[in-house]
Amino acid sequence: MSFFIIEFFVYLAKKTMPRYRIYLTGEEVSELQTIIKKGSHTAQSFKVAYILLNCDEGEYSDKATTEEIKKILKVSDRTIERTKKRFVEEGLDAVLERRPTTREYDRKIDGDLEAHLVALCCSDPPEGRSKWSLRLLAEKMVELEYVDSISHVSVGEILKKMDLSPGK
Length: 168
Description:
By secondary structure, this protein is mostly helical. Helix content is 59%, strand content 0%. The chain has 2 domains: 17-96, no CATH class; 111-161. The protein contains 9 helices and no strands. Helix 2 (26-37) crosses helix 3, helix 3 (43-55) crosses helix 5 and helix 8 crosses helix 9.
């Protein structure tokens, strides 16, 4: 019974998934051939070039089936469809280049926190210790409520940036 359900969903996915058709111009074909044959390019550029050349349905085509492309390039149907979609919607240059990241990182460590860390590093170490360790500094910064949490790696990076070490 479950086999038929899976087959049904595969059938629906194939029917509802938009199919993009690639028709490359002579100039685009020669540019993609150049990427494959000459120079140093990213692995993504090679993969995209091979996918587009094999999916081309224009007059310069050397069309291969999706199954052949998947087998040779070791990529999924989804990768091929995404590449074709991006080519149709955004053009050749966009599909050959990686998209820049849109993720924004919140900096936990600012100048004020760095100043507290430097002052703490230059102070006397806790009793029973001859010098500060990165883990001790991180724990003390949390204890003094300079920051909610901080790793000893981050403490080490800050000190390295300031050309300090807890042992000096």
